[in-house]
Every structure is written in C-alpha cells, then in structure tokens.
Amino acid sequence: MKAIIFDKFGDSSVLKTSDITLPDLNNDEVTVAIAFTSVNPVDAKIRAGHLVEMLSHKLPIVPGWDVAGKVTAVGSAVSSFKVGDEVYAYARKAEVHDGTYAEFINLSESAVALKPSTLKLSAAAAIPLVGLTAHQSLFNTADLKKGETVFITAGAGGVGSLAIQFAKVQGATVITTASSKNHDYLKTLGADHTIDYTKGNVVESVRKIAPQGVDVVFDASGGDSLDEAWLTIKKGGRLVSIVQPPDENKARELGVQATFVFVEPSGAELKEIAQLIDAKKVKTPTINIRSVKEAAKAQDENEQRKTQGKVVLAIDF
C-alpha cells in the first residue's frame, strides 16, 4: 500500500511517499481503508522527534492519528463491525509506527466506532483526536458536573471548541478566552462568558464572573496562560492541562487537583460523541480538504497556524 512516511526525524522535507506492507490482521482488529485523515499539531512534533522520550517510536513512521474510512476486513474475534461499515477512530498505538497518512490501517476493535451518521467521512476524520481529548479531560479526569463553572483556555481552537460544547451539554457554566474576532463564534457554541486574552487582565476578568474561583480549569494553551489559570481556580478545584504537566508543588500550595492528559483511544467514547453530533447537540469543526500528497505543506501551515478550520487530508495517492 502507499503511505507518507519518514525514516529520520526533521522538518517537513523528511516526509515522502513510499510503498509499505500492511501488517497481518490480529483476531481483535479491523482493517480500515482510509478515506480521510486529519492534520494535528502533534504530527509535526512527532516528525521532529520531540516526543521520543514520552512515547516508543519505530522508524520508519507513518504519521497521523485520525482516521475515517470503511472496514474492509475483520478479525475472527471482532463482533461489533462488519465489512463495509463506515467508521472513525483515534489510531494511536503503543508504539509510534503505523499511522493514518496511508491507504489502510489495522486497528483494535476497541478503538473504533461507527462514524456519526449525519457526517461525511471527510468531516468525521476531523473529530477523533480533538473530540476525545476534550471529552477525556472534562469528564474522565476533571469529572465536570452539572452546575459547575469551567474556565477553558483557547476556546476557538479545535479542542477548545468541542470542550465548550461538551461542557454545555453537561450543564456547566463556561468561561473561555479567545481574541475578540472569535467571540461571536464561541457564543454560538454555547460559551456563557468570553474574555479577550489580548486585552486587560484575564485573571481579574474570570474572578469578576466567578468571585470564589472556578471549579475546573481546562488548559489548552500552556505557558503564560497556564500560569494565569492557576489564579482562577477555587480551593479544592481541578485543573487539567493537555499541553504540559502542571506544577505539582503549585497544586499542593493552592489545594487543587492538577493533571496532565494525553488522549487515549476509545471507541466507546467516540460512540458517545457521535450520538451528540447526530442529535445536533455538538457542532463539528469547519474542514479544509487537501490531498495527502500535500502533507508536508499542510503540516507546515498547521504549525504556522495559517489554516482556517481543521485540515483534512484525502487519501488519494
């Protein structure tokens, strides 16, 4: 099969098209003919070698962790899917080697879900990584409850925009940051309060809305934004970052629970997300479809934040 690969770490020039062999199918796996994948910031980080200490890698690597396509084969122990099913998945495996910038991939049945019936495959490919990241952060880790207040940084981003909507479905009050040009958009997603992080004091703005502090902080920015976010949370609250591990000493000092989340595959949660999308309780990102043959350029533009919406790559070698 054809795939985009890299056999050494570096900039986007290391990406190339190659013919590779699809591994044998295990009993608990399905083979997916990939129609679309999507470009995420982590793709470039892996290509550059920035995650070698965090995750096991095996060169050559096929990048990409989002997938939408059709099942073409099922293992003998698989009971949830059949050939022809249209599915989507977050395709990260224990070892970074097989990815989704390719024609096919074998995935554990437990990582796969039927795609939302109301979405085309192209739109479904934009959901798994960002959707699971938001879902697992808010519910599996922060245990966000109805009636609580959550402060979400970078609300206009791919993860933040879904986190806002998941929080509203849960019945939470949502405070979020974004530049002023995105405030109307965030209101359509359900944000109760929007703060322009480029103007004024973010901490003061949040504390005006929630004088006692918020119950949950969901940090999708890191850096200075995370430093500020600590000061918005009430004692006994929960902070989750998807960018960097929070300072354990600071958490103890402030009396809060602080956790770093690195998203895990979950077909069960993707099924829940699909139900929310099909019920029109969650809006999906705008997509920008490109050819997988433009993968290098697409990664560069994603790193430089020159793209509008989520970049989806059609597997059209």
Automatic annotation (TrEMBL):
Pfam families: ADH_N, ADH_zinc_N_2. Residues 10-313 form the Enoyl reductase (ER) domain. GO terms for molecular function: oxidoreductase activity. It comes from the Bacteria. Gene3D superfamilies: Medium-chain alcohol dehydrogenases, catalytic domain, NAD(P)-binding Rossmann-like Domain. InterPro entries: ADH-like_N, ER, GroES-like_sf, NAD(P)-bd_dom_sf, YIM1/Zinc_Alcohol_DH_Fams. This is Quinone-oxidoreductase homolog, chloroplastic. It comes from Glaciecola punicea ACAM 611.
